Amino acid sequence: MSLARCFSAMALLSVLSGCGASDDYDDLDAYMSEMRLRGPGRVEPAPVFRSYPAFTYDAANLRSPFSPQISTDPAARRKGSHDVKPDPDRVRQYLEGFNIEQFEMVGTLSNATGSYALLRGAGGVHRLKVGDFLGRNDGRIVAISGLQVDVVEIIPDGQGAWLERPRTIPLKEHS
Asked: Which of 35, 66, 99, 150 has the lowest CB atom count within 10 Å?
């Protein structure tokens, strides 16, 4: 047997000798005796589970409460015009692929070439001028001021004609 092996065996025996049984469990024995004298504990019954009726959300296909109401009275509805219609041959601009509601005006720029509106939406801030198109309903910017951008959209009236709908995108302060 080598000296290292002998030394490690002696170290192991000295460590294990410290793990011997000790009779210093008087407090634990007293506690266990007290618990045995009390008898089995009382377990409270589990609470009664009340089931609730299932709720099905059915308003997903209804009009958004944040959109303006559309009149269903045929007499009160505006009649569309066959003179107003979107140009199907026009090349679409990038911002026409997004809803106009997601854009907010954050400022304006002016230089010698004209005034520009800064609109945030569609993943960035975009510089637009009068005549640019915006939104999915052929919205064309008709005016830019320091407080708002005026847009006119062309929407179907539901009877084969088209309506011009004015929209305003107000300046969002503290943006």
From this structure: 66
User: Which residue type is seen at 152?
Assistant: V
Beta bridge pairs of residue 127: 118
Report the b/e string of 160-169 with b at 16+ CB within 10 A. Answer: eebbeeebeb
Architecture of the structural domain at 79-170: Roll (2.30)
Among 13-22, 67-76, 92-101, name the most confident range. 92-101
Rounded-to-integer distance, Cα 172 and Cα 21, Å: 78
pTM of the shown model: 0.54
Q: Which helix (H) or strand (E) holds 38?
A: helix 26-38
162: amino acid identity, one letter: W
Report CA-CA distances (Å) from 68 to 6, 27, 71, 101: 92, 77, 10, 12
155, 137 contact by CB (below 8 A): yes
| Helices and strands counted in the chain (H then E) | 2, 7
Report d(CA 116, CA 132) in Å as an integer.
10
Q: What are phi and psi of 32, to 5 degrees?
A: -65, -40
Q: Give every CB contact of residue 159 below 8 A, 6+ residues apart in sequence.
A: 79, 80
Distance CA 118, CA 132 (A): 12
Answer yes or no: are the C-beta atoms of 128 and 115 closer than 8 Å: no
